[in-house]
Specification:
The complex is a heterodimer of chains A (about 80) and B (about 220).
Chain A: E1 2-9, H1 16-27, E2 39-45, H2 51-66, E3 72-79
Chain B: E1 2-7, H1 14-23, E2 27-32, E3 43-46, H2 66-76, E4 80-84, H3 86-93, E5 100-102, E6 110-118, E7 134-141, E8 145-147, H4 150-158, E9 162-167, E10 186-190, E11 196-199, H5 217-222
Parallel strand pairs in B: 1-2, 1-3, 3-4, 4-11
Antiparallel strand pairs in B: 5-8, 6-7, 6-9, 9-10, 10-11
The chains are: A alpha+beta (about 80), B alpha/beta (about 220).
């Protein structure tokens, strides 16, 4: 089963990379961007047929390694192919 | 006193630290990250560098390496642990120290001499300095911007856990002399118990006259 994990900075954490990208985009002519936050995605294929079990494994991975919960939030979902 | 320096793939200050420690009379062993046993040590140093190429988050993968289980056990027993630069990042990722080190606010790798004020000289790592003394030590990092929630920062202040703060040459802690955006100009903190210390400046790069300064040696002299 294929899983997608998205890790983003929490709202109250400054994201200097996101701000730099946002200002670059507006310099390129992409106006009206209200906010831009940078994050990471992980595509994980697990040998597991039960979606519930797979998702709970992915959550465990996030809490133990993929995200730093002091500054980051995460979301996990299964991807149907 | 005996020390062990942990080498992760990508560490690059490990040998400099060994030389500095031995210069001040501390017998030092080098320990590979995949080892599962530590030699008998009073102090463990996590060196600077780019462990695992800084992949995922700085220090995150090193914090899960095999030897770190031993380092955690050593610290829980009250043994001394010092993390310098990337070593500090590893310590926050293992949660032996609170908070997190994020990208410098100006998005640049900063490599220069800075001055820090010793806010707490009553630690195992700063006992040979005076309170509020000013040390000139180099920094060299891309992710040294210390961040923690407000309540944690007040806790650090209340418990005197902020040990080093970026300051100007007169000792004023101002925004202008904050190189990386750290909250409260934090350059180094200690845990509540007082045995785990993390700092972004590199004392090993200022521990010999040939290197242009001796201020970092005060940290090594304090280790007892």
């Amino acid at each position: 089963m294929k899983l997608q994990v998205i890790v983003t900075l929490k709202r109250d954490v400054l994201d200097p990379q996101g701000s730099a990208i946002k200002s670059s985009l507006s310099n390129m002519g992409f106006k009206n961007i209200e906010s831009l936050r940078q994050g990471k995605t992980f595509e994980i294929i697990v040998k597991e047929k039960d979606e519930k079990v797979a998702l709970s494994k992915a959550k465990d991975m996030c809490e133990k390694l993929l995200a730093n919960l002091t500054i980051e939030d995460y979301s996990v979902k299964a991807i149907k192919e | 006193m005996k020390a062990s320096v942990i080498i992760f793939p990508g560490s690059n200050c490990d040998r400099d630290i060994k030389i500095s420690l031995e210069k001040f009379g501390i017998k030092t062993s080098m320990v590979w990250h995949a080892d599962t046993k530590l030699p008998k040590s009073d102090l463990i140093v996590l060196p600077g560098g780019f462990s695992y190429g800084d992949y995922l988050r700085c220090g995150s993968i090193a914090s899960k390496s095999r030897i770190m289980k031993e380092v955690i056990t050593h610290s829980k027993k009250g043994g001394l642990v010092m993390g310098i630069c990337n070593g500090f990042q590893v310590l926050v990722e293992t949660q032996l120290l609170p908070g997190v080190l994020i990208r410098n606010i100006n998005l640049k790798f900063i490599c220069k001499n800075i001055t820090v004020k010793v806010t707490n000289n009553k630690t195992n790592f700063t006992s040979q300095t005076y309170r509020n003394s000013i040390l000139e030590i180099p920094i060299a990092h891309n992710e040294g911007n210390y961040f923690a929630k407000k309540d944690l920062i007040s806790e650090l202040e209340d418990n005197n856990q902020i040990v080093l703060q970026y300051c100007d040459t007169a000792g004023n802690v101002t925004e202008q002399c904050n190189p990386n955006g750290s909250i409260k100009n934090i350059a180094g903190i200690i845990n509540k118990k007082g045995n785990v210390f993390g700092l972004m400046p590199h004392p090993e790069r200022a521990s010999d006259k040939l290197l242009g300064g001796m201020d970092g040696s005060m940290i090594f002299k304090s280790l007892k």
